[in-house]
Write a structure and sequence with these properties.
Helix content is 54%, strand content 0%. It has helices spanning 11-21, 26-33, 39-46, 54-64, 68-72.
Length: 80
């Protein structure tokens, strides 16, 4: 039994900002990122009800051409 992993507080905000920056709907984002995920999961991520797994975060970063640190580190702002 370990300790729960700390979650970035600004992750949901940043994920939503990426989608808005590219002018995509949640369904379009799922297709653009090539995710095997329902668009309803995007809503959960953006509302901070759930957290995407590492492969999804990497897909966001590759699409937006940003380092993973910008997504995960609350002290860093996005540079889109």
């Amino acid at each position: 039994m370990g300790y729960p992993r700390r979650r970035p507080h600004r992750l949901a905000e940043k994920l939503k900002a990426i989608r808005f920056h590219y002018g995509l709907s949640q369904s379009e984002l799922v297709r653009e990122l090539g995710l095997n995920s329902a668009y309803t999961n995007v809503s959960k991520w953006e509302l901070n009800r759930n957290e995407p797994d590492m492969l999804v975060l990497l897909a966001y970063c590759r699409y937006a051409k940003i380092p993973l640190e910008q997504l995960a580190d609350d002290e860093l702002d996005l540079t889109l």
